[in-house]
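worker-03 picked up job from queue 'complexes'. Input manifest follows; two sequence lines, order preserved.
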Amino acid sequence: MTKPNLPMLDRRQVVKRLLRDRGDALAVASLGNPTFDLASAGDSAQNFYLWGAMGGALMVGLGLAQAQPAKRVIVFAGDGEMMMGLGSLGTVAAHGAGNLSVVVIDNELYAETGMQPGHTGRGVDIAGVAAACGFPTAITVRTEEELEKSVDAIMHGTGPVLVTIKVANEPQTVSLPPRDGPYLRSRFREALLGTDAHA
Amino acid sequence: MNVRQVSYVPDAGHSALIRLCDADPEIQSVSLTTEEEGVAMSAGAWLGGQRAALLLQSSGVGNCINMLSLQQETRMPLFMIVTMRGEWGEFNPWQIAMGKSTQSVLEDSGVYVYRADTADDVVANVAAGARFAYQTGRSVAVLIGQRVIGTKNFNK
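worker-03 finished. Artifact:
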């Protein structure tokens, strides 16, 4: 087996590219850089940012996907986040969620806390775990070309879909979205549910 | 009550309710690998406009602590029904530690606790606790005492 090339993709550009085709998709991002990636691509009422609750991003996505079966739900999760919630890959696969996609932004590091190495840089294959759990689509993306090919699965593929995207580890400008919880909650629910949000 | 999503890590005390939820076409019933998944799923359900409930054993409360910050910080409702172990007539010493700290851990995490120690209390507290959670956007746990559920004893 040849050693894979060092990841070259820019995480902010990757998320921006994916969201270009989001339509009315709902997005959830895990704490740290995935939240900044999502905000950097364009803040929106259809985005829900987690500023904590590590390990729970995919399950927030499952609850949302079950409540809104006609909408696509895309969860952006860091590799550390996904490792902490690894069991949720089993839960999501076992219960099915045809409208749920998870994009793992994998820099193989805990970037937020001082660049400590994560498991995915030491051989742990999150897409492999998802495939073994029963995700109908579970792939790893390393290049622009592979990224383009993955867009359709993320936006329209039969879920649950998992795409791990290996990204470079270059310093990024920090893009901070709102972090007031009740505001984020009400903004999201009002955009989705209208006046029923306050019923 | 219009609860549309129910998640659980199984406990014998919840087995009849789990069977009812699994069989109800109006309810998405989700088994979990660990209880904090259900806390996160309940938040997602609320974001999407649905009410959720989480069924767990007292030992699972410890698994939830950090995830409880999600509802606490966003003021979304969380409704949990917790069957107690490690108290009345318990035979397994390994259940004692979490059974002893369940209520204080929940309260320290911002959760409102209703205790039911008789069968009648269960009905009243579940109804009142659920209304309180969904109407006020707070986290509520109804603890069902081991005396109500009955004790296991493998040693006889």
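worker-03 released lock.
The longest strand of chain A covers residues 100-106.
Chain A has eight helices and eight strands.
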